[in-house]
Amino acid sequence: MTAHALSQLHQSQGQSLWLDNLSRALLTDEGLPRLIRDYGIRGVTSNPSIFKKAIVGSDLYSEDIAAGKRRYSDVESVYEHLVVTDIQRACDLLRPVWDQSHGEDGWVSWEESPGIAHDAEASVRAAHRLRELVGRPNVLIKVPGTVEGIEAFERLIGDGVSVNVTLLFSLDQVRRVFAAYRRGIEQLEKNGGKVAEVRAVASLFMSRVDTLVDKQLEAIGGERAEALKGRAALALAGMAYAHFREVFEDESFDRFEQEGAWPQYLLWASTGTKNPAYSDLLYVENLIAPRTINTLPDATLEAFADHGRIASLLKPRLDEDREVWAELADLGIDMDGAVRDQLLDEGLEQFQTAFDELLAAIDQA
């Protein structure tokens, strides 16, 4: 498959490809503009780990770091001064996609500080502040799927702030997030806001789920455990997509769609395969479905363009997915409890570590 064929994915299958990367180097003519033009990239996601990789050791940020230190007294403000420039440029490059798609795509995600993941009030304040700082209509503020984060998400939708709910690892989280979005949309309407001007996505992580579950299956041992390896994440995705259809293809959501509201699309995240025994496109080819988003790291995007197949769709396999879930539970693996909690804690810790290391590097520059 060629890059040109990949660029037709949205038109042919209704799925959007977003890039899971952002850096100043990527904002050159041969970077993001080329990926938008030739690969059909329709959005961008970022996180503290991505910005750490982009900024640390790069001379493209040196002048702005020096200027930020002269202007701000705290290092986190210096960091935001650096990042907002990249976010704004990416928003501007994707603005034609945003306009043409009437807000379906063309979004750039910016994550809140991981240190406020369990503080709903701080999360709401930070989201408003970051959106105003960017000053672009096509920025999504990333809020984690903690209990407090989901509370903040609902309030932000009611305020008309577009949000990417991230670090989702379970069907339970997806259900709670979709319910919060519905309540937020209703509140926005009551507040006199325009439901057509707000957007939300739900980022469900794939490879991290299989990495942890496969390790637990390995420890359990036996033929049953072996047969379940590499199946948990796709089963989760299939059940989550079935729930998406139940919630947003229901007649009760029709009136919001008639007013221009978008359903909260599932965004497949962590789609770079970590286990070399699996296909490098395991979480790409098997997750093609209308009104979904796949955010791809650079290497996975290139692999998809090189040898991917668009023919395989997210098939209706709900009975099979539920059977996988039941088998995992029977072996003592609690997908909506212990697995979710461990992955959420690890995800927050990873982002916090990257964020702290990035701030330390900026402080020492």
From TrEMBL:
<comment type="pathway">
    <text>Carbohydrate degradation; pentose phosphate pathway; D-glyceraldehyde 3-phosphate and beta-D-fructose 6-phosphate from D-ribose 5-phosphate and D-xylulose 5-phosphate (non-oxidative stage): step 2/3.</text>
</comment>
<dbReference type="GO" id="GO:0005975">
    <property type="term" value="P:carbohydrate metabolic process"/>
</dbReference>
<dbReference type="InterPro" id="IPR013785">
    <property type="entry name" value="Aldolase_TIM"/>
</dbReference>
<dbReference type="InterPro" id="IPR018225">
    <property type="entry name" value="Transaldolase_AS"/>
</dbReference>
<keyword id="KW-0963">Cytoplasm</keyword>
<feature type="active site" description="Schiff-base intermediate with substrate">
    <location>
        <position position="142"/>
    </location>
</feature>
<dbReference type="InterPro" id="IPR004732">
    <property type="entry name" value="Transaldolase_2"/>
</dbReference>
<protein>
    <recommendedName>
        <fullName>Transaldolase</fullName>
        <ecNumber>2.2.1.2</ecNumber>
    </recommendedName>
</protein>
<dbReference type="GO" id="GO:0006098">
    <property type="term" value="P:pentose-phosphate shunt"/>
</dbReference>
<dbReference type="Pfam" id="PF00923">
    <property type="entry name" value="TAL_FSA"/>
</dbReference>
<keyword id="KW-0570">Pentose shunt</keyword>
<keyword id="KW-0704">Schiff base</keyword>
<comment type="function">
    <text>Transaldolase is important for the balance of metabolites in the pentose-phosphate pathway.</text>
</comment>
<dbReference type="InterPro" id="IPR001585">
    <property type="entry name" value="TAL/FSA"/>
</dbReference>
<dbReference type="GO" id="GO:0004801">
    <property type="term" value="F:transaldolase activity"/>
</dbReference>
<comment type="similarity">
    <text>Belongs to the transaldolase family. Type 2 subfamily.</text>
</comment>
<keyword id="KW-0808">Transferase</keyword>
<dbReference type="GO" id="GO:0005737">
    <property type="term" value="C:cytoplasm"/>
</dbReference>
